[in-house]
């Protein structure tokens, strides 16, 4: 079963201080942890994909105008409190295992090396075989 | 792999036999499996150019043997072998080749390999991968593409499975009679898992992807050929053939699911149906009876009917009752309820489904509301049907199924003048 794990960072620093206020060592520890996550998923044969995403300043919202030309709105978004900082797609044996992986990612270290306990969304990927209908 | 399908078929048929010989000779399944893959690559490269050797099997064993010697001479492999020898049961003479044993002994270890690769000590995903590679002779790249994961992930999965076999010290032999039934059930389960995985693809045939359903049928044919008297293995092969026979009619031009009722039955594969029917008809009286045979018998009744209305529903209902006694599960109970509706009317079916409403194994899943929706539609209760179709569409993890359920709801909504169609169709 494939799952997409979405890592949310809060824009306003509601959950934890914005990453641009962390010390270099704290940022380094966080990056090292993410590398460790990727290494473990690769070693367990569960890795399908995983990427870090650009910050809210780089996000663009695009709609097609009436004539099909792109209408581009820039972030950050006045309304949103968090943004998508990264994602993984994993292929694992059970929904419980997906939750276990999400909880592990949630413990990524932040300021002072303390676990961030950030929210990780677990989305099932629509990859199940259809049944006879 | 080679572009000549005849060479490819021959290689895949010989792969497990070569692997068996190398494993017996060197006592190291994991290394033998790598050597076998290398011999296959060498053959796929050279045979199309130089022509087929007089003894293809012997050719592959020779190449694999030379590669094994290189591996065994390696420091790492020697350490591995020492570990193996140290752990080996002293009275286990499995791996000691007899002095007069010819390299090309006419022995087929395919069944032994199936038992090893489908061992309950392996996670299902690992067993699937290892079976496809070691018994099916597929490359890691082919398996990765078939299961839609990166090649590196699949390589890791296979190597972990092999490590697991090595560290558990699983013996290379047919299991003892006491555990044979249970181990055989595990083999069938893995093969059926490969078969159902084959139905995941929705984007039409991808020429670069292995046909997993076809591969599962090929491997189950091998199992059935090795154990022709085993009624459940015959039943499993029949079930696969009778299900696969409908595959061409199962989806429309853009991959949309077509229900059994609406399928164009002239597009069903008559040869596969005939073979499946023969198999299950032969297995049932022989016994012992098992769930795969019963499911195959149900599939046969569907496949032999000229239409939904002309289907022998009383017989299907009776078979679901048998299946419930053999292998009760909420899904079987649900199917029995639908069959009961076809025999006695939707109200009876809905009452039977109500009894499953609190089953935690169905909670939050799409099967129950989907079945309820069909029966409400049958009863002419459109509003309830629409609500249940939408509830089911929101819960399924299969994209074609989600689209199918959404379309059913939309169609009924148009008829009832309720135009608010759920927005779950992405394309």
From TrEMBL, chain A:
Q: The YCII-related domain covers which part of the protein? A: 1-105
Signal peptide range: none
Protein family: Belongs to the YciI family.
Query: This protein is called what?
Result: YciI family protein
